[in-house]
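ESCALATION

Customer reports they have been waiting on this structure for their group meeting. Please prioritize. Original submission:
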Amino acid sequence: MRSSREISIKKSVDWFSIGLYAVLVIMGVFCIYAARYNPQTESSILDLFDFNQRYGKQLLWVLLAGVIGICILFSDHRVYEYFSYYIYAALVLLLIATIFLSFAIKGSRSWLVLGPVSLQPAEFAKFATALALAKYMSGIGFRLAGIQSYLRVGLIIFIPFIIIILQNETGSALVYLAFMIVLFREGMSGVVLFLAFWAVLLFIIVIRLGNVPMEGDLGMLGTFVSYVAIIIMQFIFLFWYEKGYKNFKYLFWGNIALFTLIVIINSTGLLSIKYEYVGLAAIIVSAVMQIVFFFKYRRNHYLLVFLFLVASFGYTYSVDKIFDDVLQAHQRVRIEVTLGMKDDPKGVGYSVNQSKIAIGSGGLLGKGFLNGTQTKLRYVPEQDTDFIFCTVGEEFGFAGTFVVMLLFLLFILRLVFLAERQRTVFSRIYGYCVASILFFHVFINIGMVIGLTPVIGIPLPFFTYGGSSLWGFTVMIFIFLRLDMSRSERLE
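Update from on-call: job pushed to the front of the queue and completed.
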């Protein structure tokens, strides 16, 4: 007679999610096999079971991941909420220990060598942070409002973030930005997300255009464009809050008249006034006027706009300092290559260029399984790890990449659907953490392979070679599936 637990799992587990997980994992194994395949040796598909090769090892990791997933499904769902903080604390301590116990691999001290196996604790810290975040935010009476709640939530996220940065694993650390999506779902103001986007936008403007002189020696283009962007954004905020522009119409038209006048004066050749000085004057006048509006109308949004002006202006002057003194040399080069400031075809840009060539050569339907020339000739470095997606593009073409991206999209949307149907806040928040982390990984990895984002060493889930990434995602996803099963158990 079958046990009640076995019957419960068959009835309540989300088989659609498990099916998507299985399909992606199997596709990943075959892509690693394709990336490592040597056409000069006689081989067959049975070579997948050669555990001396990386694809054989990956298959072993997959089998062990399946065992881990099954064990989680048969576990008690209450364990994960009850021990959330303990799991988080244990992983944080392990991250700290890794800095001192690991050996430097390509400049990173993030791997623990345990006999024949190497593990990266940072991959497991993601689900631990998600559990701790869900536990804290699901507490009785919690509301994401006020400085204290933001500080505590931020502390949970940024403790592992900082430790991973100290391990020189910038890519793994940036994954923690995915939790911003979760906070937004749980009530964080959209203004915070906008300000994050705004900081990135200003950073790109200043770095990309900062050294580009304007025609006629009228200043630097990057500085001027950033000033104009700040002024425009000021008025967008004011229009939004005021539902019109009655109270600041003179400031609005005054700015337009000022810039128009300067353009006319410079075009006549009588005077040469640098546009960046005009932009600076406009920002100063605007900031002063916001203070005047604040005291006149007693509305707090004028003070907020004033702070936005001051902070944005100060940030534009700190960008160069951050870029030159905070970022490491290889990180600066990667950003410059991504923004088109440097070509560097033999250096940092080599991997991306070769990856784009491989993907482009695949055409619509690809060259066929094991027939990729870029792959077989080893033109793309790290092709079975960070750049595994170019194998998909070369051998299966646009159709193959579309299918893979569609499967990932379906998986992420399914996780969001499951998160929304949860009956506990803890399960819902944890589900959104899982979906957000998966989305961040997929977006950044595919983006860097096709040259849209800097190369920061983020694995493609289920495809990139390695047990740590696969096991980390397996644990994270199957814990959520176990929590989702508990929802069905409560309904029985």
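Sent to customer with the following note: Residues 32 and 384 are 5 Å apart (CA to CA).
Escalation resolved.
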